[in-house]
Amino acid sequence: MKVDGKHYRTIWIEENGEVTVIDQHKLPHIFETITAKTAQDMAVIIKDMHIRGAGLVGASAGAGMHLAARSFPADGSVADFNTAMETAAALIKATRPTAANCEWAVRRQLACVAALPATATVHKRQEAMRFEAQAIMDEDSEWCRRIGEHGLSMIKDLAAKKKSVDEPVNILTHCNAGWLAFVDYGSATAPIYAAHDAGIPVHVYVGETRPRNQGAALTAWELQKHGVPHTVIVDNLGGHLMQHGMVDMVIVGADRVLRNGDVCNKIGTYLKALAAHDNKVPMVVALPSSTFDWTMTDGVKQVPIEKRDASEVKYIQGLYKTDGDGTADKGQLAKVLLCPPESPALNYAFDVTPARLVDHLITERGVCEANEDAVLTLYPEHSA
Predict the structure, then answer these.
(1) pTM of the entire structure?
(2) Are residues 333 and 220 in contact, defined by beta-carbon separation less than 8 angstroms?
(3) Does 92 have pLDDT greater than 80?
């Protein structure tokens, strides 16, 4: 995707081995990058949500393991190297416990090292982990591109039902499952970008997504940069729009999807799914295979739900306006207290949408219904 005409990925490895990411803390008002030199740096970047989103968390976790390997002394022993990698793995996995991609990427890096010959030097192990980190990034981008291709046909079908070729397909999304949440393209936004680029009129209702407002801050920003028509809405407006026939499709991403089709995603997704089900609006979830959890069988009972600091609910960040005519100082970001300072707040970051409320899953391998038999048709290697 492009920012002001220049192509960017959300994360990349520098020539010297350091890792740079787009810092999402200041978007949409300030575009900056931040560079990690160590696994500890990357753990802070992930946990404090300088980056977020399933695919990008996975890519960053893989890159964090590369940084752990890079920081290990070249003259150290292989045994000490392996111990250091296990320590780094525990550090990184603890940053975002709900996101399946985080643990997936860490396990993949450990498996990469374990597959090397016992005689492999520390240097060879460092090289292998840098290569694997890059492979995770490249695969994430390609998988999202394919999700866009597969999802495009669904939007084409909706467009064909319109009375006029100029009438847009209205899509509601929640949180940010765009290219800022992955390495490139995004999951939920990939079909939207594909449709827009193919000349199909689309319009996106962007749920603001309290408390961190990833929809209003991030999804709206990237849609605007790409020229996709969109409207930011308060989270609780989605059901009303569906009742009045103003939404043709709901499409969201996911942080963890079980083999039975249960979907764990940003808090509020369950409510969107209930409204979509009640109004017979297709509820679609887009995800790369790295987001599947093949071990759990009951999303509500088994998925660990991250509980974040109450300050995210009590405070909101925005651009500080310096005068009454709407003119703003681009360098002034401020946090504002929304509620009485003494009031407690509860901040669960995710919820689980049962598979019965999900119509389709879009993956890099194709589209399927949200049930175990259909999922395993696309991923037969996980049948055992």
Answers:
(1) 0.89
(2) no
(3) yes
